[in-house]
Specification:
about 180 residues, 8 strands, alpha+beta
């Protein structure tokens, strides 16, 4: 017997597979997204890991969070220095943005490069942020953080056991609005 093109169990299986592969937005089905890469001008720096950009190709301003790091809260020791270090590096500069996905606050989580340098890695290396820890992982910038601690850079200058921002937020709550 020869299966006809328009019928048979294989057609049903093909339809199910196609539907599952294209089920974006269906509850319980996660569809991986490809990273979005574009060039943009940095227009504002909110704190040591959050900034606003305007894509060079046009479109709306975008709020971004540097992926892989955790900078001090703006009202925490080192918070303003962290913000100022990020601003000194990228404010009004053209950067390359690699968007991975969005966080619960609607910010795109990104890897940002300026003049070929990973901006987050540089901030951690200068002691202006921690490598973002997740479960048992010390994060993507653990080596840069270890070096900054050893050299007593930035937030590790006077206290090598500086308080992580998530612990600071748990103890003090969010920083008051300016």
């Amino acid at each position: 017997m020869t299966a006809r093109l328009g019928s048979g169990p294989w057609l049903l299986a093909l339809l199910v597979a196609h539907t599952a592969a294209n089920a974006e937005g269906v509850a319980g089905v996660e569809t991986p997204t490809l990273p979005t890469v574009y060039e943009a001008r940095v227009t504002r720096v909110s704190d040591g890991d959050t900034l606003w950009v305007k894509p060079l190709a046009g479109g709306r301003y975008r709020k971004l969070r540097l992926d892989g790091i955790d900078a001090p809260e703006i009202c925490q020791d080192g918070g303003m220095a962290s913000r100022d270090a990020l601003a000194a590096r990228v404010l009004e500069q053209v950067v390359t943005v690699h968007e991975r996905h969005h966080d619960t606050y609607g910010r795109a989580l990104v890897r940002l490069t300026h003049s070929g340098t990973d901006v987050a890695a540089r901030l951690v290396l200068q002691g202006h942020a921690w490598s973002h820890r997740w479960r048992r992982s010390l994060g993507p910038y653990a080596q840069q953080e270890a070096w900054a601690r050893k050299q007593r850079m930035g937030i590790f200058q006077s206290d090598a056991s500086a308080e992580l921002p998530r612990d600071f937020r748990q103890r003090h709550g969010p920083c008051p609005l300016p």
